[in-house]
Design goal:
5-stranded parallel beta sheet, 272 residues
Length: 272
């Protein structure tokens, strides 16, 4: 079994809710036998206490903050300074880490009103919110590079079962709003994980500007460092915070899930 699937399975087991269910289930089983009944009670009680702890926004938010604050936002000034430190004729690569993209249902519903017509203008609706934020940041950076006259390619990773033509049309339609020519765009459709995305961006040549959600960028930069790929981080989008820090919530559990997944994902940087 590949490391990719080992990490996927391990992360699902260690996510807060599955982990607590496993502890609680083990405790319930141990209650059956008199000799292990006390241990069962401890495990059942412990699972409930841990559920309350993992559900506290103050805990999950503090852990998430460490990930999101690893790299500051990429301002126009920082980008300009970085560009001045690179060769003026060298190519730059804006690499956008992949996220959700679904089009089959949207296309079917849109095409129903116009048989035989490809609804190109509606393809971008298949991008989820996280991906749209990343694409927006990539478009902003691309416009800054256009204004400075730099040569660049904007590479977008979309690893889904959607047709290649559909994915290409979707990114071309979206970035046309930024005035970015199709020849500037590169579709990465064979990167199944973050490590593969870094390798694909590296293969394009040129200095890399790495775009992803703020919490995910910390892991991507570790993976880039492991490959000795120099990259400029461009965080795009931050997870919302609950102002009621001491009241357990489902959002806090989800944030804890993100933290667990991101730290487990860093193991990819150690595997050669």
């Amino acid at each position: 079994m590949s490391f990719f699937w080992v990490r996927k399975i391990l992360s699902r087991v260690l996510f807060p809710v599955p982990l607590l269910l496993q502890i609680g289930l083990l405790g319930a089983v141990l209650l059956i036998w008199k000799r292990t009944r006390r241990t069962g009670v401890v495990l059942l009680l412990g699972s409930h206490v841990l559920l309350a702890v993992f559900s506290l926004p103050i805990l999950s938010d503090s852990l998430l903050d460490r990930l999101e604050k690893a790299h500051p936002p990429l301002t126009a000034t920082r980008l300009q300074t970085w560009c001045q430190e690179t060769a003026p004729t060298g190519r730059l690569v804006i690499g956008v880490a992949g996220s959700g993209f679904r089009t089959a249902e949207a296309l079917a519903e849109t095409a129903a009103g116009a048989p035989g017509k490809l609804a190109t203008d509606d393809l971008w609706a298949g991008f989820n919110d996280d991906f749209l934020i990343r694409l927006q940041e990539a478009g902003r950076i691309a416009r800054l590079l256009e204004a400075s006259g730099r040569d660049y390619r904007l590479a977008v990773s979309i690893s889904t079962d959607a047709a290649m033509e559909t994915k290409v049309a979707a990114i071309e339609q979206y970035f046309s709003r930024f005035g970015i020519a199709p020849e500037r765009l590169v579709l990465i459709d064979n990167a199944v994980n973050s490590k593969a995305e870094i390798a694909c961006f590296e293969a394009l040549g040129g200095k890399l500007i790495l775009v992803s959600s703020a919490f995910h960028l910390a892991r991507l930069m570790k993976l880039a460092d492991a490959r000795r790929v120099s990259a400029l981080p461009a965080p795009a989008g931050y997870v919302g915070r609950n102002p009621l820090a001491w009241i357990p919530s489902a959002d806090a559990l989800n944030n804890f899930r993100i933290v667990v997944y991101e730290y487990l994902g860093r193991l990819e940087a150690w595997k050669k």
